[in-house]
Amino acid sequence: MDTLELIRTFREVANRGSFSMAAKTLDVSKANVSKYVAELETRLGVRLLNRTTRTVSLTDAGSLLLERSTPLVEMIELTRLELQHRAKLPSGRVRLTAPYGLAQFDLPRLLGEFMTQYPEVHISLDLNNRVVDMVDEGIDIALRVGRISDANLIVRKLKCIEFLVCATPAYWEQRGLPAHPDDLADHDALTYSLLGSQPEWRFEIDGVAQAVPVRSRMDATDAGPLVSLALQGLGAVCLPRLMVEQHLQSGALVATLADYSPRDVWLYAAYTQRRHNSAALKALLAFLELNWRED
Description:
Strand order of the largest sheet: 4-3-5-14-6
CATH class of the largest domain: Alpha Beta
Distance between the termini: 54 Å
Order of helices and strands: HHHEEHEHHEEEEHEEEEHEHEEH
Number of strands: 14
CATH architecture of the largest domain: 3-Layer(aba) Sandwich
Number of domains: 3
Shape: rod-shaped
């Protein structure tokens, strides 16, 4: 038995002044209570209780242990109750990581609505375009855009992502509007740095996923600068619709090749455990799934 349980048994005997009463309260045999107290005394190397056939009294060491263990036991009990509360009602901290691009669009609004609905939940948001190690970095939920390939993660699909190739009307007028992904060979591309020195944009052509090489005019680690340069007419970008929707609606950018967008790219939430997740984590997953699927 662990030391904490032995201390609990000792405290019950000390507070009730009886092995029999302690055994009844703890719902164990009197012999086991005596055994546990003796084991604790052996571990500590001191006698904690004076025993006679009729009475039980504390030694000086026993009095010290009873006094010093009280705050510890109270803290553990309060922690247990708080953890049970968090398992049932959304509260406490949820650590969330997401790419920078999501923070420029729907994510802040949705998190605000979630926190209004669940005022006892605190969100810690880490914006990062790299794929983090969720266990090492203590992340509860990772929002990602892409293909789902890590078998060690549990994922919840939130929204199928439509990719669009976009540029200004003036750029398309000058360079020609691509009708097929192969036409991109004649265009300047603005690409993610993660795609490397020989970037490719992925499409679905006749039901088959294909990577099409593009000539990068500039690369960046985030979509923001790429969109800004596209708005200046310096090239085309290939980005999720949600990242360029406002510019499409205003007419600043014009999209093409929507029919070739991959069908297996998702905005998804990844987490590491199926069981014993907090109520706050479960609530946030359900909230994001509901709201993004309604879009």
